[in-house]
Design a protein that fits this description.
about 180 residues; two-stranded antiparallel sheet; 8 helices; 2 strands
Length: about 180
């Protein structure tokens, strides 16, 4: 099966495979004000900590993982802060290190598609595994794709199937496909 992590928030495909938006309901296909990520997502992330300065303060001084993630989203999408993938990676890494599984997944996506650095598939897979272990459904789905394709990890379709099932149970609809 040819597929890959698709980050429609940025309009970037890790592989040039167009997938209908209906398969990825959590993401936007528009481009929109937040670089394709639904603007409401970026706004919801920052609602509890305010603007980039307020969220940065809560991240840096209070060690608040969700605030670190919110700043990462702002820098990744250019919503509320200048777009800067290096800074997005830094804040996603802080979020991940502090236990926010979403930060691990989002950092993995940036490593996989090579934003802010050259692609690093093995590191992306490690981050997806950490996200999945932490309960992030997209992390499980992304790791399943890596195992399906053998990119960054050894090919293992049984492991991929189990990860897809877990992602499906956690609510990722595009992971709820039948296994041939």
């Amino acid at each position: 099966m040819a597929s890959s992590v698709i980050d429609l928030r940025l309009g970037v495909f890790a592989l040039a495979l167009p997938l209908p938006c209906a398969l990825l309901p959590a993401l936007s296909c528009g481009g929109g004000a937040a670089g394709g990520r639904p603007l409401s997502h970026a706004m919801m992330e920052s609602a509890s900590c305010g603007d980039v300065a307020g969220c940065s303060t809560r991240c840096n001084e209070d060690g608040d993982a969700p605030s670190c993630h919110a700043v990462g989203v702002m820098y990744e999408t250019g919503t509320g802060a200048p777009q800067d993938y290096g800074k997005a990676k830094d804040f996603y890494a802080r979020s991940c290190e502090r236990g926010d599984a979403r930060g691990c997944n989002d950092l993995g996506v940036l490593y996989e598609i090579g934003l802010g650095s050259a692609p690093d598939y093995a590191h992306a897979a490690t981050l997806y595994a950490r996200a999945c272990t932490g309960g992030d459904a997209e992390g499980c789905a992304n790791l399943a794709l890596r195992y399906d394709e053998g990119v960054g990890v050894p090919k293992d379709t049984v492991r991929a199937r189990d990860l897809r099932r877990n992602a499906c149970r956690l609510g990722v609809q595009h992971a709820c496909r039948s296994d041939e």
